[in-house]
Amino acid sequence: MDPQLELKNVTKRFGGVAAVDGVTFAIGKGEILGVIGPNGAGKTTLLNCISGVYRLDDGDVRWQGASIAGLAPFRVARLGIGRTFQIVKPFTSMTVRENVVAGALFGSDEERPRLGAAFGRADSVLELVGLRSKADLPVSALTIPDRKRLEVARAVATRPKLLLLDEVMAGLNSVEIDDALEMVRAVHESGVTVVLIEHVMRVIVGVCARVVVLDVGRVLADGPPDVVLRDERVIQAYLGERYARRLRGS
Ligand SMILES: Nc1ncnc2c1ncn2[C@@H]1O[C@H](COP(=O)(O)OP(=O)(O)OP(=O)(O)O)[C@@H](O)[C@H]1O
Ligand SMILES: [Mg+2]
What is the pTM of this model? Predict the structure, then answer.
């Protein structure tokens, strides 16, 4: 594996309690990695440690061989690490297209695109996420699933090499999840490494070749979904017996 991102003993404490506690693993270029675990396991905090929102209390984050620990979020983004937020944060006074143009202009390229190119880029990303027909609507007119798509589009428009997605499929129905899965596959096929935090196991099994399970801030398991989701410790800590029985039945 050619490691693109390396987490070494990543630790983040809140008031003495470790939300992320000595997490070590690497992500290879071109992977789609699932990150799962119970509520409060530290998934979002880990993502915030990678994207520069939090300063680490211990450990290191290395991007393409160099440490990025301590960099401001916008610097991390410009290195090519894009992300979405679990609580979506669109610019509500702007149209769908303008939101994505803002992402394109922010962009990770050394040379920022001109405005015309940014609009072109925005439209191709909107096509990719299935929002092209809604480009001229104000964000306030979007449904929740469309807002999630927009959140992904905004992040993709920055041209990330690595995209961190935090529960972009939460609250979607089964048909919407299928669409969202297609969207993630399309982004991945365009050459982007993807880290996907999700509670929906169908999503994890559907797109991830590898899953990391977090529990109380630590890595509980790391491997292919068919192994990890059958791991007794993962069933105990997270999936529960009902899921395990269903899995055995299938
Ligand atoms: N800013 C903060 N200040 C204090 N404690 C925090 C903060 N952010 C997270 N925590 C705590 O850190 C732990 C990990 O939270 P985190 O949000 O990373 O979990 P998560 O795995 O993303 O959960 P969920 O699946 O519910 O999104 C929790 O105990 C949470 O209460
Ligand atoms: Mg979270």
Answer: 0.92
